[in-house]
Specification:
Layout (H helix, E strand, L loop, with lengths): L2 E3 L6 E3 L1 E4 L19 H13 L4 E3 L9 H13 L6 E6 L14 H15 L4 E6 L8 H13 L3 E7 L3 H14 L4 E7 L11 H8 L2 E5 L28 H5 L2 H16 L4 H10 L7 E3 L4 H8 L8 H10 L8 H6 L4
Length: 339
């Protein structure tokens, strides 16, 4: 396992982060129904991940109903005595509970969500507290001041954001700098070989500002694991077998990417999953790649990426296979040779 700074922050985290979305068996009210793991399996995955060198775990209050993932993780932390060896990240923003203030990024809600997460996680601080998505109904200044207060109170160590538009993130960083507030250390965003959109604006912004990028869905809900075949429907017990998720990835571009990933994996005697994760680890500004594991087999397959080194040629092959239209103004800029 390798370790990197959490963006511009001083703390070091493993280059692979264990995502907690699958922790606990969620009921029908949760979007994780039938695709999670029971508590015993979650504990086994956590034990093996930490033994392999992972020190970074990410979850959110909305994973599973009533904060299920946080509760499972909190129990494991209490039982295992590992808390002070780990960097624990969680998120707030989406709907929890009922009432007019059941979601959002207001000061009122941030303070309540933080206290609730601390209680479920059974800990005295959250190492990385992230807003799960921007809230256009709340001034960014209000959100940032509330997070800054939590940092000053010692309940939060670092702050981060997720699913932010680039303009909103740039505004947030400016607000933090000019008002001397705790600034985001990380951006958690969808990023993979089949979803490279953040390379247009977010990656250059994070590079300029020193934010670490934490890719979520690095395997595109398992599509890049290599277990799917073109022309064959996914198994019903997989994440892509739920609803219409598979249709999003089932296209010619993405099957060409799969072919390139399989070819690189064969050359390296590795797996498509490990190659797909290692490609992200080779990208500028990526601090740690967040992956989930429903069982020990999935965990072991993904852990192989931690020490897999892609050559520059391998990265180039994958870059070209996954090339995507940049659109205006980027194509105009490139066509005129002014990059």
């Amino acid at each position: 396992m390798k370790y990197r700074n959490l963006g511009a922050a001083g703390v070091k985290v493993s280059n692979l982060c264990l995502g907690g979305m699958t922790f606990g068996e969620a009921d029908e009210s949760s979007f994780m129904h039938k695709v999670g793991s029971d508590e015993a399996t979650a504990f086994a995955v956590l034990d093996r991940a930490v033994a392999a060198g992972i020190n970074f775990i990410d979850t959110a209050d909305v994973y599973g109903q009533d904060g299920l993932s946080e509760r499972v993780l909190g129990t494991w932390l209490t039982n295992g005595g590992q808390r002070d060896k780990l960097v624990i990240a969680t998120k707030f923003r989406f709907t929890m509970g009922e009432g007019a203030n059941k979601s959002g990024g207001s000061r009122y809600r941030i303070i309540k969500c933080c206290e609730d997460s601390l209680r479920r996680l059974k800990t005295d601080r959250i190492d990385l507290y992230q807003i799960h998505a921007q809230d256009l109904a709340v001034a960014e200044d209000e959100t940032l001041r509330a997070l800054d207060d939590l940092v000053r109170a010692g309940k939060v160590v670092y702050t981060g954001c997720s699913n932010y538009a680039a303009y909103r993130l740039a505004n947030s960083l400016w607000e933090s700098k000019t008002r001397q507030l705790a600034s985001f250390a990380t951006l958690q965003a969808q990023y993979s070989l089949v979803a490279r959109d953040i390379e247009r604006e977010h990656v250059p912004l994070c590079r300029t500002a020193g934010l670490g990028i934490l890719p979520w869905s690095p395997l595109a809900s398992g599509f890049l694991s290599g277990k799917y075949e073109q022309g064959k429907p996914p198994a019903a017990d997989t994440r892509l077998g739920q609803g219409d998720r598979y249709k999003r990835w089932d296209n010619e571009r993405n099957w060409k990417i799969i072919a390139a990933v399989r070819a690189v994996a064969s050359e390296l005697s590795s797996t498509p999953s490990a190659v797909s994760l290692a490609w992200l680890l080779a990208k500028p500004q990526v601090t740690s790649v967040i992956f989930g594991a429903r069982n020990l087999e999935q965990l072991d397959a993904n852990l192989a990426a931690a020490d897999l080194e892609l050559t520059a040629n391998h990265v180039d092959v994958l870059d070209k296979a996954s090339a995507f239209p940049l659109g205006y103004p980027y194509d105009f800029i490139g066509a005129n040779g002014v990059w």
